Fold:
Amino acid sequence: MKILLVDDDAMLLLRLSKQLKQAGHQVETVKDGKAALKKILECPPQLVITDWHMQPLDGLTLCRTLRDSPLGESIYVIMLTASETEDELVRAFDAGIDDYVTKPVSLRVLLARIKSAQRIVSLQEALTREHAALEHRARELELLNRKLEQLAHTDFLTGLPNRRYAIERLNQELAESRRGGRPLSVMILDLDHFKRINDTLGHEAGDRVLVHSARILRETLRSCDVACRFGGEEFLVIAPDTDSHDGKRLAERLCHAIAANQPELPLPAPLTVSIGLATASPGEDVKTLIHRADVALYHSKEQGRNRVTAAA
Structure:
């Protein structure tokens, strides 16, 4: 065991230190409680064997100080005492000692007490390791659960939130909008002639166009806006604190950004987007709000694509 031996008797320190080292223990020695506290802070032992009566800090005060500190809670303490009176032993155990050995010290008895201490300390250390392992496993599980939750709400291809997240978030934003009396706009974006891209260049090229479009959305939108992949070539944008006028301006900016930033592919036609915009009305639910944006998107498609239509 790692033992700290504390006694103001230099001859006793020398003798016990030598005997304990011969018994296979690692032993450090100090001459009083104050020096013991300093040594414990530097390199905590498993076991402290301390005399009771020392100056300037006695063994009883040393023990109380250890028990008041998280560092000293788990250190096993054996008190060396010349007295076995009932009152003094009760005082010592109240101060936090684990065991005692009377003076003059019998090496045989002390080694037996140390062996008993070693069993208890080993159990404590095993429990501490098990607790640390459980905490580590709990942190890993928590991290894994967060990752799984994130994956459940993320579109694998574009990295944007998916349809499930979009509906949940829109419900939250609509509730916040009602409570605060703030406007909320929603837009559905559909990449024009996307089927032609897949049919002409293949689905891999189509995937590249989707990833490219998602990046343009992220770069163009404001920090408060939420862009989601809604399905296929459709995206949904939630724009909090945005009325129909500002929503129209934001949607047109997105429309221009997509047209101005073409992917490096031999597309059959320039990439453009059609957008349907709807601003929440009092008492309107998410399903109705999305439906109005979808109808507005249909009108954008009907009117020639590459444009924004606001719902009535």
